[in-house]
Amino acid sequence: MFLAATLNGIVLGSIYILIALSLVLIYGVLEIPDFSQAGLYALSGYIALTVMKYLGLNYLVALLVSILVIVCLGLVNERFAFRPLQHKEQTSIFIIALGLLFVMDNFALVIWGHEHKSISIPSIAGHTVTIGEVSFSYERGLAIVTAGVLVLIVHFILMHTRTGDAIRAIIQDREAAILMGIRISRIRVITFALSCALTAIAGALIGSIFSIFPNMGDYIIVKGFGAIILGGMGSVFGAAVGAVIMGFAESYGATYVSSAYTDAFAFMMIILVLLFRPSGLFGTKERVG
Amino acid sequence: MNQWSVRSFRNVAVLVLLICLCFMPRFLNEYLLNILIMTFLWIMLTVSLNFVGTMGYISICHATFYGIGAYVAGILTFKAEAPFVVSLASGALGAGLAGVLLGFPAFRVRGHYFAIATLAFSLILSLVFSNWHEVTGGDRGLTGIFSPFLTSRGYYFLMLGIVVLTVVVSHLVLNSRLGRQLVTIREDEDLAQQMGINTMQVKLVAFGLASLVAGLAGGLMVHYVNFVHPDFFTFGYSFSVIMGMLMGGVGTTGGAVLGGVIAVGLPELLRFTVGWRYIVMGFVLILVMILMPKGIYGTLSHSLSKR
Questions:
Q1: B206: in domain
Q2: Nearest residue in B to A86, CA atom
Q3: Residues of A with CB under 8 A from a CB of B
Q4: φ, ψ of residue A146 in degrees (nearest 5)
């Protein structure tokens, strides 16, 4: 029971980590949490599913196609929705993000219908490893490994490349970064592309573990946001830790308290963190918000 | 047009509209009458959300307060056979109370943090609506809620009266001391506080009033459709209220009324496109936000008075 819950928590945490990283990176350049990532997340699952089912291609190709499409969509959003409003107040930009999410939710609903669907990866479907008395499917393993590798890649980009330095500088102090000659519009595009790729991978991965449905992103994006406020908004490391905490809290909550209200714990936690520790668990900078 | 002629033009327009609305039931069929009644309900939602919007806050749980009002009124009627007025009043008070209780923690933060706190609240309540089977009927909802009104024509006049009342209250509130305090909070909250405005109290009053009216609308909805279901109160509906309000224009009663009309009218006009209509709505919202930040009403009345 405990082992199963722990493993489940790790799987959830790996998915949340991708969403949280995507949110925290965009938060750095856009200064709002981009909730339209939730729509991209759902679309990514559907695109991967469609490519595999109707074009008969394998999972890896489907994943690449969906990353490509989602990154393009994300850049279109950045160029035509966020950029025209970049000097408006944050609330307007946040509404635009919600508007995009609303459009994408309804688009998925019109095209794919409201039934829950799932991706099956023929080469590994049905295989399990047994750990203790818990059987653990290959798909879950794939999710954990992929998330782990991606976290390392993001870490490398942020810490060891010039672009990464620029992204971190903007997250730390936007004005100072601009004064230092960082071309913010270029970094914006790169950050959006990177974030959308992470979101796309998360969406395609979750489809093989749980099910895909049009508004599947609505809940996970709030949890991803929960992870980044736990981690103290601006901190990439904090967001990753926050995501793992969210995953475990949800998994243990479902196992030991109530499965119907699992999501409610996560949302209560967000309200409580906003109330008592607005700077997050690891945050140092007091947030004005 | 100068200030005076704009104002008198507006007053005449409102009067003509009211007279037309009084004679509408003679000419309209059931379907169109139904759309008008739904428009009245949505005008109550956009006008009440406008209290929160006027202070620069975005609340993503307005459909949730609508839902609380609907469930309280519905359950009281269904299980306790409460009289019509009692069920409506309890629904409105229940929603208003929930608004104040949420406002206490949520108003400690600003901007999109507030919006997300209200979103989290609405997601929690959605779970409660669909999982608390003994009380809310769970995913099947509650059907056969008794209503004392047998004809939609009678209900039309009741709704018309309540909407006119809501609009008058909104007009009085926005032009009162409280209304000016709301605008001050939007312009600069720290400054408002330093000027001696008890911002927390003002915000709670506005939010409580907004959720009270939304709860009343919920109760009226339940007695009209005789049915309540968790799917009526999701993120999509809350966002539709926000879309209507923003397209109409935040900060004025006229803009909010126009917003309610748009929120019902636009999807209804686009009914032939089936599911695509919400996608069109979303795009229209994004266009309006980029091109007309003051909303349609704000932009129109601005250009009228400049001429």
A1: yes
A2: B290
A3: 32-33, 81, 84-85, 88-92, 94-96, 98-100, 102-103, 105-107, 109-110, 215, 218-219, 222, 225, 260-261, 263-264, 267-268, 270-271, 274-275, 278, 288-289
A4: -60, -45
Give the containing element (helix H, strand E) for A259. none
Burial of A246 (0-12, 13-18, 19+ CB in 10 A): buried
Task: Give the Cα separation of B242 and B262 in Å (integer).
Answer: 11
Give the other-Cβ count within 10 Å of B10's Cβ: 13
Q: Which helix (H) or strand (E) holds B228?
A: strand B227-228
Q: What's the burial of B3, exposed, middle or buried (CB within 10 Å: 0-12/13-18/19+)?
A: exposed
With respect to residue B240, please indicate whether it lies within any of the assigned structural domains: no
DSSP output for B165-197: HHHHHHHHHHTSHHHHHHHHHHH-HHHHHHTT-
pLDDT band at A200 (very low <50, low <70, confident <90, very high): very high
| Structural domains of chain A, ranges and CATH numbers in brackets | 2-276 (1.10.3470.10)
Query: What CA–CA distance (Å, rounded) separates B179 from A244?
Result: 45
Q: What is the pLDDT of residues A158-188, one digit of tens each?
A: 899 999 999 888 887 888 888 888 888 889 9
Q: What is the mean pLDDT of each run of 10 residues along chain B (307 residues)?
A: 72 87 83 91 96 94 96 90 90 97 89 88 90 84 76 86 95 94 92 92 96 96 90 90 93 93 91 85 89 86 74
Domain count, chain B: 1
Is pLDDT above 50 for A289?
A: no
Say which amino acid occupies A84: P
Residue B6 lies in a domain: no
CA nearest to B240 within chain A: A102
Q: Give the residue carrying structure tokens 């956009």.
A: B46
Q: Is the pLDDT of residue A1 over 90?
A: no
A8, A48, A197, A266, B127 from A209: Cα distances, Å = 11, 13, 19, 20, 22
DSSP B231: G
The per-residue pLDDT for A270 is 80
pLDDT on residue B161: 94
Q: What is the helix (H) or strand (E) element at residue A129, kind and residue range? A: strand A128-131
* Exposure of B55 in the CB half-sphere (CA atoms within 13 A): 31
Choose the mutation target among A90, A102, A268 for the interface with B, i.e. most B CBs under 10 Å.
Answer: A102
Residue B186 belongs to some domain of the structure: yes
Alpha-carbon gap, residue B75 to B138, rounded angstroms: 12
Range of the domain at B199: 28-235
Contact between A103 and B278 using a beta-carbon 8 Å cutoff:
yes
User: Model confidence at A286, in pLDDT bands (50, 70, 90)?
Assistant: very low
Q: Is the pLDDT of residue A194 over 90?
A: yes
Tell me the pLDDT tens digit for each residue of A69-118.
999 999 999 999 888 888 888 888 899 999 999 999 999 999 998 889 88
Please state the pTM of the whole predicted model.
0.89
Helix (H, G, I), strand (E, B) or coil at B97: helix
What b/e readout covers B186-215, taking b as 16+ CB neighbours within 10 angstroms? Answer: beebeebeeeebebeebbbbbbbbbbbbbb
> Which residue's structure tokens are 């709002």?
A32
ipTM value:
0.87
Rounded to whole angstroms, how far apart are CA atoms B35 and A180?
58
